[in-house]
Amino acid sequence: DAGITQSPRYKITETGRQVTLMCHQTWSHSYMFWYRQDLGHGLRLIYYSAAADITDKGEVPDGYVVSRSKTENFPLTLESATRSQTSVYFCASSLTSGGQETQYFGPGTRLLVL
Amino acid sequence: RKEVEQDPGPFNVPEGATVAFNCTYSNSASQSFFWYRQDCRKEPKLLMSVYSSGNEDGRFTAQLNRASQYISLLIRDSKLSDSATYLCVVNIITGTSYGKLTFGQGTILTVHP
After folding, report:
1. Which of A25, A43, A48, A87 has the highest number of chain B CBs within 10 A, making it the mutation to test binding with B?
2. In the prediction, which pLDDT does B95 show?
3. Is residue B96 over pLDDT 80?
4. From B105, which residue of chain A is nearest by alpha-carbon distance?
5. DSSP state of A103
6. Contact state of A45 with B101 under an 8 Å Cβ cutoff
7. pLDDT at B98 over 80
8. Which residues pair with B92 in a beta bridge?
9. Nearest to A104 by CA among A17, A24, A16, A7
10. How many Cβ atoms from other residues are within 10 Å of residue A85's Cβ?
11. Runs of H (alpha helix) within B2-113
């Protein structure tokens, strides 16, 4: 059982390039999330999705685009990467969104924008 | 003011020590509370949920004080393997929005021999 996976695990790109980070989960969880983690800020929500074809903005959505055509996949695209988007990106999923529901995180993607 | 605030530490304690972390949250609409653990360069993982009556899981005890908007985590008999960053997490449900997890910056714990 693979759980939740992310690819690539490490990525170096240049300013202005488009980058897509992939997230795949095998649990058929309804909810999926993208976070970025930076020193001094902790984990901040970029986008989330309640189900296939339903997405919404989180705390820091500018410069990012998401899609969810299938329940198991939730790719995150940086349309034109900037240095400020250098970060560690975590994808997460949960069965529901309320109460004591646990979010399960992928291993993360470390992105460096030069 | 941050929605969830933690003392970043670091806390450096010897094996066998008892250590306590505190966390405050600002949004009174917060409904669920958690402690996550994050090892260096790894993903966060749920350590334990925090219930109103307080709860214990082995060496770990979590407390919630809704009146003061305060959460705590107590670790007894610290092990080397407890060295990690501990994230205070609050689930805020407002209006029709989904339950949004808000993370504190984390408290770094190092347990030394």
Report:
1. A43
2. 57
3. no
4. A42
5. P
6. yes
7. no
8. B30, B100
9. A24
10. 21
11. none
